[in-house]
Amino acid sequence: MSKFFPDKITILSASELQKKFHEDLIIEDDLPIKIETIGGVTSYSRGKIIKVSLAILKVDENYSKFEVLKQDFIEEQSKIPDLPTFGGFREGRAIADSITSFDIPDVLMIKGHGINHPRKFGIACHVGLSMNIPTIAVSSDLLCGEMKTIDGKNVIVDEEEIVGEVVKTSATSPRLYVSPGHRVSIRTAAEIVRKTTLEKMPEPLRVANEQLIQKMRQI
Q: Signal peptide span per the entry (predicted)?
């Protein structure tokens, strides 16, 4: 994993690495036929401190029942500066560290971006490729590209390429910008997010986010 998370890096070299790593991504379904566990990760960083909240949920085959199996919260220090679009080198490392102490879920949702990224290598790609696990990016903001309706679907288009899908589960729910990280197709990523969202965000991310909020209040 070390080549994915160097201790020191410049903006230029980080940009080049992202472009290089992108070439190794698998943006098609390479995950278990029957998904039984889904992880959710949210993170917060300020200065050198990074806080990561992780939850792993068990789901039934109809995505109608969710059971929290494990939760964890870690805090790390990073030598990498906090720079927009390069979070994979910073928060990504902390997320990868937190996952290694768990049984790897069938799919991992990460609050952030995937191939809907200026160099098509967001944090979900970074974590997914470094650990060789299926990852899905879910965010509430459109980092790059624009939303278009194609064949009846609201998709994210960047440089004439579809890089994600916009999921909105009800008239009052917020838009979720969904994109593959690694080993998941755009269609399946959106489908999993849609099936696991009961309210404003997918259940694995909701549980992880609530834990992050609780921990932050205790500080």
A: none
